[in-house]
Write a structure and sequence with these properties.
The chain has one domain (13-146). Helix content is 73%, strand content 0%. The protein contains five helices and no strands. Helix 1 (12-32) crosses helix 4, helix 2 packs across helix 4 and helix 4 (66-103) packs antiparallel against helix 5. The protein is elongated and about 75 Å long.
Length: 153
């Protein structure tokens, strides 16, 4: 192979294709971030799935993709809000169940339906916490890269 031969992955065309892909992802993320709360949670789950390697985006890509960062920020804020809601529910139920446990002298809790709600809230709180941490990591990576000036971009 001659020195004149281009590396396909380093070609101008490959870089242009990557730029188009990032713009498509940015468009998708922007649309997803404007949907209902349940769909915003699903968007957070899609982001957190790792199917898109956000850590591979360059600082320049991040600076040029402010709408992508904004969309991820909206998902992050939604997940934080939902996590706090479930976490607060759990705190309230802990107090209630602690009082009931005292009243019942460590017997079975009377309101099984409410206890089931407590268990479901625990599961959701953990799931939202996992998604919140994952999307926060993506957001912080992109936000940091967008503020980083690197001469090699």
């Amino acid at each position: 192979m001659d020195d004149d031969d281009l590396q396909i992955s380093d070609s101008e065309e490959a870089r242009a294709s990557i730029t188009r892909l990032i713009k498509a992802i940015e468009g998708w993320a922007t649309k997803e971030s404007q949907k209902s709360e349940f769909e915003l949670t699903a968007f957070g789950a899609a982001l957190g799935s790792g199917i898109i390697a956000f850590h591979q985006l360059t600082s320049k890509d991040c600076r040029d993709s402010r709408n992508l960062i904004g969309a991820i920020s909206r998902a992050k804020q939604h997940l934080e809000k939902e996590y706090k809601k479930f976490d607060n529910d759990i705190d309230k139920m802990h107090i209630k169940f602690a009082q009931e446990m005292e009243e019942l002298d460590l017997k079975i809790i009377r309101d099984r339906k409410e206890f089931k709600h407590y268990l479901v809230s625990l599961i959701y709180a953990e799931e939202y916490n996992k998604l919140r941490r994952s999307v926060t990591n993506i957001f912080e990576t992109l936000e940091s890269k967008s503020n980083y000036e690197d001469g090699s971009d």
